[in-house]
Write a structure and sequence with these properties.
The chain is an all-alpha fold. Helices cover about 75% and strands about 0% of the residues. It contains seven helices and two strands.
């Protein structure tokens, strides 16, 4: 099953030629710019929009994970991100985010009807917000357990910003996903016209 999840999205590069690959690379470049614009509360406590849910829905977990790690690699190469924190960021931001995004995507499909508006609002908007908030909680938990920052500081000065960030992420990802589904539905690998639009 893991092999199927990993292999399936890569086959789209062959099936659809260079167009799908170009879209993937283009989104990586956009996310590099987005991740470069960040605000820091304290050292290590950086806040920025992620685009994780959008990339997970558009390219499925395997390609999203690889693409987001390429974003991190580019930030490390240009000096925006210290090399020492590369693995930790890959695990806590990308790993946690892609897993949460995949779980939300699967849960919505399992428990709710497959409908266009459910896809857009629950996955694109609310799902994106939940992923960012989940990443923030995971990071705060790591910093608290490690003792790098006091629990009270993380609770009062770090986590509240993730609620605001989640709202911004929801609007950005939701609007981008809506535009993609309206004008280029083929760019969203997890969306199938026959399933989400037929007979609705």
């Amino acid at each position: 099953m893991v092999w199927t999840l990993w292999r399936a999205p890569w086959s789209r590069f062959k099936a659809e030629g260079g167009r799908f690959f170009n879209v993937w690379l283009g989104m990586i470049v956009v996310l590099m710019l987005l991740w470069s614009m960040k605000a820091g509360v304290r050292p290590g406590l950086d806040l920025h929009l992620t685009g994780i849910m959008l990339l997970t829905l558009a390219f499925e977990p395997a390609l999203a994970f690889v693409g987001l790690n390429l974003v991190l690699l580019a930030l490390a190469l240009n000096g925006t991100l210290p090399w020492q924190s590369f693995a930790l960021n890959a695990l806590m931001t990308i790993g946690v985010g892609v897993v949460l995004g995949t779980l939300i995507h699967k849960a919505v499909d399992h428990f709710l009807p497959r409908h266009f508006f459910i896809f857009v609002f629950l996955k694109g908007f609310f799902g994106a917000a939940l992923v960012v908030i989940g990443v923030g909680l995971a990071s705060a938990l790591l910093y608290g357990v490690d003792g790098a920052y006091a629990w009270s500081y993380l609770w009062d000065e770090y986590l509240p910003y993730y609620l605001l960030l989640g709202f911004a992420e929801a609007w950005l990802s939701g609007m981008a996903l809506t535009l993609m589904l309206v004008y280029r539905p083929g760019w969203v690998a997890t969306f199938d016209d026959g399933v989400y639009l037929a007979g609705k």
